[in-house]
Amino acid sequence: MHEVPLPGCRPEPLAHYLKGLAVLRLVGEQADAGCRGWWKDDIFWLRSALDREGLLGFFLQAYRPTPVVAPWNGGSGFFPKDRQEGIRPLRMSPAGRFQVYRQTIEAGHRVLNSLGISEKPDENAKLRVLLTARNLLSEEALAWMDAAVVLTDDGAKYPPLLGTGGNDGRLDFTNNFMQRLVDLFDTKTGEPRPAAEGWLRGCLFAEPVAGLQRDKKIGQFYPGAAGGANATTGFSGESLINPWDFVLMIEGALLFASAVTRRLGSGQPGVASCPFTVRAAGVGYGSAHGSDESRRGETWLPLWSNPASLDEVAALFSEGRAQVGRRMAVGGVDFARAVASLGVDRGIASFQRYGFQVRNGLAYLATPLGRWPVTPRPDVDLLAELDGWLDRFRAAAVSDQAPARMGVVLRAIERAIMDYCREGGRRRFAEIVMALGEAEATLAASPKFRKQYSVDPVPLLSPPWLEACDDGSAEFRVAAALGSAGIRENLEPVQMGRRVAWLDMDKHPRVVWQKGDLVRNLSNVLYRRCVDAIREGAVGLPLQGRCTAGLGDVAAFVRGEVDDWRLEALLRGLCLLDWSRGVEPRASSEEPMPPAIYGLLKLVHLPHPLQDVAVPWDGSILARAMAGDASGATRLAVRRLRGSGFLPLMEVVHEPPEVVRRAAAALLIPISERAAQRLADMVLRRAAQELEPSA
Q1: C-alpha torsion sign, points 460, 464, 468, 473
Q2: How many Cβ atoms sit within 10 Å of the Cβ of residue 420?
Q3: Phi, psi at residue 272, to the nearest 5°?
Q4: Phi, psi of 668 (to 5 degrees)
Q5: What is the pLDDT of residues 568-593, one digit of tens each?
Q6: Who contacts 368 (Cβ-Cβ below 8 Å, separation ≥6)?
Q7: Per-residue DSSP letters for 291-336?
Q8: Helix, coil or strand: residue 179
Q9: What one-character-per-residue DSSP string does 268-289 give?
Q10: Contact 320, 330 (CB under 8 A)
């Protein structure tokens, strides 16, 4: 057995990937049934009884082309106005290697004659040709038909890999396949033409080759050889192709024989099922845009690192699907989740993602969209909690009547999911949470849209989400503490309960979060919650949380040493968690201590008694602090503490207005009772009662 690297067969472009499949298929079927193929270092390798020269000899002397025909397509060579330089020589060829091809062409003519069709068929006639061809063509020809067309209860469906039934616009793949065969072989003798060996060495082994064919079409499979703008040193270049590239890419595509699948017991009509092909997602790559979500979808091509036989690879493609939880992947984001959760066939090292996108004028090109290693990301399973809501939101956001901002936030969610699936890490998972928070904010500001499409708020997320997105930053710890205080109702018009629902009124008095800086919004929420608690006669201020922040993190916030934008984005996302379900507290930094002004203000804004003394709330203290008045706020706080029996160590504190405003906003951040006692030790001497002489 010989192991032969094929540097001309690589994952990119699509034509080169298909060439690797073609080599494995043709050698396995026509030369060595025990051959094996695999991908290593971005090159396809073949293990077989053929060495390098033996492989060249096989294709030049023994290779029998698969009969690729499409009598259902105009331009296929079967009609008077079609180009005949490929189909006519093959139809008349006496060579043995073209015998099956000759018979298949004759069968195609019999199909058309039986239906009385002599011109390019319309859609209804095309379906009749397909059905008749299915019954009359040979098994060899049906391999191509299975890859190019899927006949369902709703008519013919076309996998994106081969355009619309074997053609891409005016380019018919079958006619061009026959023309390239005529370029490579003498149809009278079946012998290779003089240039065929050099072209083959260039095709398989990436050896330099002269005399590439000009102005020949290769379609969507090889954008770099298609010519057009910026294809050369001038403004526009002509196409340059190797005929072996075209022949082998079509031969390789036959492994993508599609099928019709039906969910067991569903009673629904059959739908087209194409190997590793899903709905296109315009996210997950540098040039991503919503307009890339074409009807042709996208295909994820598997790269396996262990030698596999033709039967094993054929089984891989015949069963080629991706699973997300209990359902099949239907879009690019789903496929990325499947890759991250190992919801794909085992033994695959990575996937090369391709989108079929309009790039050169109105032409579709198979555009490489990145490599995706098959790496387990355990937390990806948490996304199943969003499936129902995300499907409904996506359907609404991509509708014709949806405002553009809905598409923006949808793509932000999908982009964050795909980034996490590819790269992993808690910071990437945190970006998913942040995108969800932004989506809810956008929905909250769009009452007409959410009512029209019945889009609910983001559902409550389970406690494990907190651990999954804990990036260890001060911003995360502060956001977690704030989110655990139950302030979601102060950010959006939602009603909390076992499930979250929008309020009937779009503007509720307790919703005080507005567009603006984080500090002012936090202060407004703090003031609103305190006022509501006093009005309702609540015991203590509603400032406790399931999580608490350390004084070191509070100090960083007060001094402006945190990223306010990221903190707000994390807060919006973490407010979506179900904090009623026993979330574990986060470990937080305790050093250094925050400024004294924060200590004084916090001791009169505690959700619990201070040393068993309930300190009454005075709204004027917070109002002065929110205005940046350090002396006025601290004088009132000192007076309130003294009135409650405590002795502050200072009469007044002076700080810049910005520090004072941030200290006021920080009062909303839940801290532990131990942290509150440390603040008391910092700004108080001791309780006044302890100064009285003993009896």
Answers
A1: positive
A2: 26
A3: -65, 135
A4: -75, -20
A5: 999 999 999 999 876 665 556 667 89
A6: 11, 12, 13, 14, 352, 353, 354
A7: GG--TT-EEEEEEE-S-EEHHHHHHHHHT--BEETTEE--BHHHHH
A8: helix
A9: PPPEEE-TTEEB--S-SSTT--
A10: no
Alpha carbon distance 462, 460 (integer Å): 7
The DSSP string of 488-525 is HHHHSSEE-SSS-EE-SSSS-TT----SS-HHHHHHHH
Span 297-308, pLDDT tens digits: 889 999 999 999
300-to-122, 308, 353, 488, 600 alpha-carbon distances in Å = 32, 19, 4, 39, 60
DSSP 457: P
Q: pLDDT tens across 256-272, in order?
A: 887 665 544 444 455 55
Q: Are 102 and 91 in contact (CB under 8 A)?
A: yes
Separation between Cα atoms, residue 108 and residue 133, nearest integer Å: 7
Helices 673-683 & 551-558 angle (0-180, nearest 10)? 60
Let me know: does 390 contact 461? Beta carbons within 8 Å: no
pTM: 0.86
DSSP annotation of 539: S
Cα 173 to Cα 32: distance, rounded to the nearest angstrom:
28
Say which DSSP state 484 is in: T
Residue 555, C-beta contacts closer than 8 angstroms, at least 6 positions apart: 592, 593, 594, 595, 598
Determine contact, residues 571/437, Cβ cutoff 8 Å. yes
Joined tokens for residue 526? 């703090």
614 three-class SS: coil
Residue 154 burial class via C-beta count within 10 angstroms: exposed 0-12, middle 13-18, buried 19 and up:
exposed
Tell me, what DSSP letter sits at residue 461?
B
Alpha helices in 60-216 (DSSP H): 87-92, 99-115, 123-136, 139-148, 173-184, 196-205
Strand partners, 279: 331
With both helix axes pointing from N to C terminus, report the angle between 518-535 and 564-574 in degrees, rounded to the nearest 10.
40
The tokens for 509 are 């008095």
The answer to whether 245 touches 19, Cβ cutoff 8 Å, is yes
Cis peptide upstream of residue 307 (ω within 30 degrees of 0): no
The token pair at 630 is 């350090």
CA angle at 407 for the pair 401 and 413, rounded to the nearest 5°: 145
The HSE-up count of residue 149 (CA atoms within 13 Å, CB side) is 24
The sign of the dihedral angle between the CA atoms of 610, 614, 615, 618 is: positive
Burial per residue of 52-64, b for 16 or more beta-carbon CB atoms within 10 angstroms, e otherwise: eeebbebbbeebb
Letter for the amino acid at 11? P
C-alpha count within 13 angstroms, C-beta hemisphere, residue 195: 14
Query: Cα dist. 418→8, 12, 339, 355, 431 in Å?
Result: 30, 21, 10, 15, 11
Amino acid at residue number 493: P
Torsion of CA 568, 572, 577, 583, to 10 degrees: 20
In the DSSP assignment, the letter for residue 193 is P
Strands 501-502 and 236-237: unpaired
Q: What is the pLDDT of residues 86-101, one digit of tens each?
A: 999 999 999 999 999 9
pLDDT tens, position by position, 500-526: 999 987 778 899 999 889 999 999 999
Nearest to 546 by CA among 500, 479, 592, 612: 479
Q: Which residue matches tokens 């064919």?
A: 213
N- to C-terminal Cα separation, the chain: 104
Decide: 23 and 10 in contact? Cβ < 8 Å: no
